[in-house]
Design goal:
By secondary structure, the protein is an alpha/beta fold. The protein is built from 11 helices and 9 strands. The protein has an 8-stranded mixed barrel. β2 and β3 form a beta hairpin. α3 runs parallel beside α5. Bound molecules: ligand C2E and magnesium ion (3 copies). Ligand C2E binds next to β2, α2, α3 and β6.
């Protein structure tokens, strides 16, 4: 019986894994056509200054509207695009689209665009950035590229050069999902980041008494201040989390407490003249 059971379990796993692999292959095929079929768009989530609750910028987030499956999360399709060699093209589309759209908006807010480590490893990447800036006429100082700690995992000889080249264009760099990855502090010493994004896993529930997250956020903020970098707390959802983030001295906040990611015309509406600071409304329960 033990033997049968063992085989049974084995078959079960085989079948699941097969389905997963097949699913992935299908998604990969469909991703190949998604760009030309115009199935991507960007949504924009406000980044808010804690000092005055003004919108300092937006993060552009990719959305794939699949004709049959509907909405698929970037957390699912970005890794597939990376493995299938499609992220270079898709990432370039996101960068160009973000620059083109934001250059037409009524206020000079910043725009943050996520960059895959695969794009970052490509020596041609700075030229892609310069091209996106020149066709959109966006001021380089308004573009911020978000890079995760994983770029340091397979750090090649040209990583330092890449940072130097990107900074010489005049753009800003931010370190995304800080504290969740490779988390060596040595790269903070040399990589020219303008902003550290404190990962939402530290922000969520940080206000609960006895929670250790507040201590971690506090130390990231003091580290960032000493290195002359801004800090942004990601994924703040509640008034308590916001209050704590402000107490701990984060310079910026991004989270559902202020706004979910918005389609372009909604993002523009928030920048309309005469509109005051954002009001933290939090999640509707
Ligand atoms: P990320 O860059 O860390 O983006 C933040 C994610 O947190 C977004 O998820 C955003 O919608 C979500 N978020 C923001 N505030 C809250 C909150 O208060 N509560 C909760 N529960 N979530 C919040 P999204 O849009 O699903 O994106 C997931 C990830 O996909 C991104 O994480 C990024 O790593 C990747 N991604 C998205 N767009 C692109 C892109 O254009 N290029 C690349 N390479 N990656 C992208
Ligand atoms: Mg990001
Ligand atoms: Mg993040
Ligand atoms: Mg992330």
């Amino acid at each position: 019986a033990a033997k049968d059971g063992g085989r049974g379990i084995h078959r079960f796993y085989d079948r699941t894994m097969h389905a997963d692999a097949e699913d992935r292959r299908n998604l990969e095929q469909e991703l190949r056509q998604a760009l030309s079929a115009d199935q991507f768009h960007l949504v924009y989530q406000p980044q808010v200054s804690t000092a005055n609750e003004e919108i300092s910028g937006y993060e552009a987030l990719l959305r794939w509207n699949h004709p049959v499956r509907g909405y698929i999360s970037p957390a699912v399709f970005i890794p597939i695009a990376e493995e299938a060699g499609l992220i270079t093209q898709i990432g370039e589309w996101a960068l160009r689209t973000a620059c083109d759209e934001v250059a037409k908006w009524p206020r000079n807010v910043k725009i943050a665009v996520n960059v895959s480590p695969i794009q970052f490893a490509n020596p041609g990447f700075p030229a892609v950035v310069m091209n996106a800036l020149s066709r959109s006429q966006l001021d380089p100082g308004r573009l911020e590229l978000e890079i995760t700690e994983s770029v340091f995992l397979n750090e090649g000889d040209n990583t330092d050069q890449m940072f130097a080249n990107l900074k010489s264009i005049g753009i800003r760099l931010s370190l995304d999902d800080f504290g969740t990855g490779y988390s060596s502090l040595s790269y903070l010493k040399k990589a020219p980041f303008d902003k550290i994004k404190i990962d939402q896993s530290f922000v969520r529930g940080a206000s609960i008494a006895g929670n250790r997250n507040a201590a971690i956020i506090r130390s990231i903020v003091s580290l960032a201040e000493a290195l002359d970098m801004e800090t942004i707390a990601e994924g703040a959802e509640t008034h308590d989390e916001l209050a704590l983030i402000r107490d701990l001295g984060c310079s910026h906040v991004q989270g559902y407490i202020y706004s979910k990611p918005l389609v372009a015309n909604e993002a523009v509406a928030l920048l309309a003249e005469g509109r005051g600071p954002l009001v933290p409304t939090g999640l509707k329960s």
